[in-house]
């Protein structure tokens, strides 16, 4: 086995659905990224973190499993923040997760924003809700965010070539930055784990 630089990618999934269009979009992002450089992916499904998450008002009140999920997000080389649009914004559980993240843990961390919604007008969530959230954390949001509306999918599979193209453009723009962020961990292929 050879030692290679692997980018630790953590997806924070704000969708309550399983399977979901949001994760269908993220799958395209991860597949495209894996073609550019070696990645190791982890996924945090906020709707499946349980009462140790939903009942916590402050970080001190979370269970050890939830603490591990929060640390996983804080220590990522690249964070993919993915959420469906609910009533003009991201879901409350998605926001609750980031309410528990340390204020400075995401400073200068690359964050790729991804969202899904019923129609193209929901794409505004990227610039008017998600980007300001991560600006608070002083994160380095990837300039090209990705959005897919219901018409771009067949079930949870993204069919629209424009969405695929936007993902390619967005990742190509920051490929050098992401390569520099990759850690020197051992990997021979893309691995996956869910939290």
Automatic annotation (TrEMBL):
Coiled coil: none
Record flagged with keyword Oxidoreductase: yes
InterPro entries with a match to the protein in the record: Flavoprotein-like_sf, FMN_Rdtase-like_dom, NAD(P)H-dep_FMN_reductase
Span of domain NADPH-dependent FMN reductase-like: 8-150
An example molecular function term from Gene Ontology annotations: oxidoreductase activity
Pfam family, one: FMN_red
Keyword list, A-Z: Flavoprotein, FMN, Oxidoreductase
PANTHER family: FMN REDUCTASE (NADPH)
Protein name stated in the entry: FMN reductase
């Amino acid at each position: 086995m050879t030692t290679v630089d692997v980018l630790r990618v953590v997806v924070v999934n704000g969708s309550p659905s399983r399977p979901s269009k949001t994760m269908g979009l993220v799958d395209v992002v991860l597949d495209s990224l894996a073609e550019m450089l070696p990645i190791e992916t982890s996924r945090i499904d906020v709707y499946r973190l349980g009462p140790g998450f939903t009942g916590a008002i402050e970080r001190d009140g979370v269970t050890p499993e939830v603490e591990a999920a929060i640390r996983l997000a804080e220590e990522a080389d690249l964070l993919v923040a993915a959420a469906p649009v609910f009533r003009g914004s991201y879901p409350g559980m998605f926001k609750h997760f980031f309410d528990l993240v340390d204020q400075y843990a995401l400073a200068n961390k690359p964050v790729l924003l991804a969202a899904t919604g019923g129609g193209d007008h929901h794409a505004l969530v990227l610039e008017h809700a998600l980007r300001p959230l991560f600006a608070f954390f002083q994160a380095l949001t990837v300039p090209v965010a990705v959005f897919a509306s219901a018409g771009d999918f067949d079930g949870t599979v993204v069919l629209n070539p424009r969405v695929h193209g936007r993902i390619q453009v967005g990742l190509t723009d920051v490929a050098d930055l992401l390569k520099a962020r990759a850690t020197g961990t051992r990997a021979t292929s893309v691995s996956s784990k869910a939290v």
